[in-house]
């Protein structure tokens, strides 16, 4: 690993102090955001414990290494707007203060999704479905209140999350059923009215698969109608054997051709076996824990660390090739211990999908990504 560090003296380097036996060891840790500063922004998701300051160690590492933060959960509808007349802004306010103080590019996730959205949004006082007009009004109020509050400070919004099925058809959700297909453009229009300077993104998983054309059609339709959209977010919940690099490359080319910015928005690479053949990120999946699905409960073997590092390097090499279009790569968490992959799609596993380990130490994948830039 030392050889990676020595070539990096031109870049900003961070000193870390660790323990080896009884000896204190000081090493120099390269800074990812600086190493990649001429390529794209490098980000992480932050959870509530980090935002609130209860997990200061992880927050400090995030502040050292990343120049853009996404709120992992605290801006989702169920968290920020749990009841009709109740908004909870404590943690989102802290998130935004952090960003302002440290000059971090903040991403709001997410304004409209079919998950993590309370039932009341879609129902009247008797529990019956509301009309299109009522739901549009609620969407508008929500977006104006949340985006409006952070106008000028949250610089980019995942406006709509996961609206398409893998075959490109529109996902049947309460949003699409009650409002109709124009709910997506309405959400973007409201967000633009609430903060005309904010970048607005469409975000989804399996973006390298069959939904590509649907996303391109959406963007082109917006461009014709003059509805603002600035970026395409490809959730990067990937594995060791998917997506195939050539299919990912085709997707990058397809999205680059729209002229929009491309972002890898939720990067983690699961090393554990998939309980089914699905490559998506449907958060409602909940498979029973079995020993064979949790092969590394104590530690990831070195051989697997290498496989993971090579996989990360493969993705980053490809993303660097498209750096003129790729504006940001955001990891879905700072270190393995906080990753949602430990609980999804099987609860209670020990996964290793990120580039810092549970003790906040950089993994071989970290150094491998650093080594790609010289
Ligand atoms: C996940 C969070 O990481 C978990 O903490 C939460 O329990 C469920 O949602 N796609 C998305 C993210 O857009 O919001 C999801 O985040 C992961 C899949």
Written account of the structure:
This protein is α/β, with parallel strands linked by helices and 374 residues long. Helices cover 35% and strands 19% of the residues. It has helices at 2-6, 32-35, 48-52, 56-65, 77-80, 90-102, 132-149, 174-179, 183-194, 212-225, 245-256, 302-321, 364-371, and strands at residues 13-20, 23-30, 41-46, 68-71, 105-112, 154-161, 199-204, 231-234, 237-239, 261-270, 326-331. An eight-stranded parallel beta barrel has the order 3-4-5-6-7-8-10-11, surrounded by six helices. Helix 7 (132-149) runs parallel beside helix 9 (183-194) and helix 12 packs parallel to helix 13. The radius of gyration is 21 Å and the shape is globular. The two termini are 15 Å apart. The model is unreliable at 1-11 (pLDDT under 50). It binds (3S,4R)-3-hydroxy-2-oxopiperidin-4-yl beta-D-xylopyranoside (XIL). The site of (3S,4R)-3-hydroxy-2-oxopiperidin-4-yl beta-D-xylopyranoside has 8 residues, from loops.
């Amino acid at each position: 690993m030392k050889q990676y560090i020595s070539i990096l003296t031109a870049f900003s380097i961070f000193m870390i102090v660790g323990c080896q036996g009884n000896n204190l060891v000081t090493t120099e840790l390269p800074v990812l955001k600086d190493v990649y500063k001429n390529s794209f922004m490098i980000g992480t998701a932050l959870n509530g414990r980090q935002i609130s300051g209860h997990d200061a160690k992880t927050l400090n590492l995030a502040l050292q290494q990343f120049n853009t933060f996404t709120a992992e959960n605290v801006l989702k509808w169920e968290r920020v707007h749990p009841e009709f007349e109740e908004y909870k802004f404590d943690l989102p306010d802290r998130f935004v203060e952090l960003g302002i103080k440290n000059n971090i590019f903040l991403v709001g996730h997410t304004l409209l999704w079919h998950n993590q959205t309370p039932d009341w949004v879609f129902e009247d006082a008797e529990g019956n479905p509301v009309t299109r007009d009522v739901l549009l009004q609620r969407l508008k109020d929500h977006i104006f209140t949340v985006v409006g509050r952070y106008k000028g400070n949250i610089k980019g919004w995942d406006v709509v999350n996961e609206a398409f099925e893998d075959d490109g058809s529109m996902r049947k959700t309460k949003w699409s059923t009650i409002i109709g297909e124009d709910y997506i453009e309405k959400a973007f229009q409201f967000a633009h009215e609430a903060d005309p300077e904010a970048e607005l993104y469409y975000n989804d998983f399996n973006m390298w698969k069959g939904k590509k054309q649907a996303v391109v059609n959406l963007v082109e339709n917006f461009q014709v109608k003059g509805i603002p959209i600035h970026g395409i977010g490809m959730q990067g919940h990937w594995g060791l054997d998917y997506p195939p690099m050539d299919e990912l490359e085709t997707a990058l080319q397809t999205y680059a051709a729209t002229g929009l910015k491309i972002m890898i928005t939720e990067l983690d690479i699961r090393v554990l076996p998939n309980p089914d053949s699905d490559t998506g990120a449907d958060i409602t999946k909940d498979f029973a824990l079995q020993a064979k699905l949790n092969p590394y409960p104590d530690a990831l073997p070195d051989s697997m660390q290498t496989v993971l590092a090579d996989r990360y390097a493969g993705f980053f090499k490809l993303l660097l090739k498209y750096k003129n279009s790729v504006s940001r790569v955001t990891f879905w968490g700072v270190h393995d211990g906080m990753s949602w992959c430990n609980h999804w799609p099987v609860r209670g596993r020990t996964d290793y999908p990120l580039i810092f380990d549970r003790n906040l130490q950089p993994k071989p994948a970290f150094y491998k990504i650093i080594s790609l830039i010289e």
